[in-house]
Amino acid sequence: MATVVVFGATGYSGEAIAAELARRGHQVTGVSRTAEPDVTKDGVRLVRGSVEDAAEVADLAKGADVVVVAVHASAGAKEMREYLPGLLEATSGARIGFMGGAGSLHVAEGGPLLVEGPDFPDQFKGEALAHKAVLDALRQTDESVDWFYVSPAAGYGSYAPGETTGTFRIGGDVLLTDAEGNSRLSAGDLAKAFADEIERPAHRRARLHVAY
Question: Which terminal CB of the chain, N or C, has fewer other CB atoms within 10 Å?
């Protein structure tokens, strides 16, 4: 059993990840700016806090085996890349898993990024580029920093919840699509893939992409 702290635990992805980890028997603390303090939901103890405050992160992450960051990279007072160094220092000693986006995936081997395509929605470009900046920064960190970064399918989100199947594919830096060219994933299956990586680490200092 691992001790896990999930930042963004009341969001679409973070809530699913925290609940899946608790269901598997892990000790999970969920952190959110909007959480009601000292409430337990789906086996997750919720506390109020911010991933942007390094001192607060250090206190909450004390003794954690894994820290999950499932917040928008461009939300809050500043972009995550600005406070990432403090975040990594505050979580030193724990493995840290980032919930990222799909925009930084290549549409084909050696091809352009999804976010660079003409059909990528303008309203999501800022967030996609902010998540890409976090991944780029992680790849430049010292080898001692134990991180992994998860990119979901292109069609992932609360607008397309889908069904939890327990069956999905794991890729790397190239977008996965089905026979019809669609790239989809439910929050339940994203959470399963995230929990699998925590329980059986296979992507140290690397990105994994999850889709059907």
Answer: N
Kindly give the interhelix angle for 80-90 and 122-139, rounded to the nearest 10 degrees: 40
Are 209 and 172 in contact by the 8 Å Cβ rule? The answer is: yes
- What tokens does 106 get? 């290549």
pLDDT of residue 78: 73
Q: Write the DSSP string, 137-171.
A: HHHTS-TT--EEEEE--TB-STTS-----S--EEE
Stretch (H or E) spanning 199 = helix 187-199
Confidence grade of residue 198 (pLDDT, cut at 50, 70, 90)? very high
pLDDT digit string (tens) for 159-171?
Answer: 999 999 999 999 9
CB-based contacts of 187: which residues, under 8 Å, 6+ apart? 12, 13, 16, 156, 158, 161, 162, 164
List Cβ<8 Å contacts ≥24 apart for 22-25.
24/195, 24/199, 25/1
The class of domain 3-211 in CATH terms is alpha beta
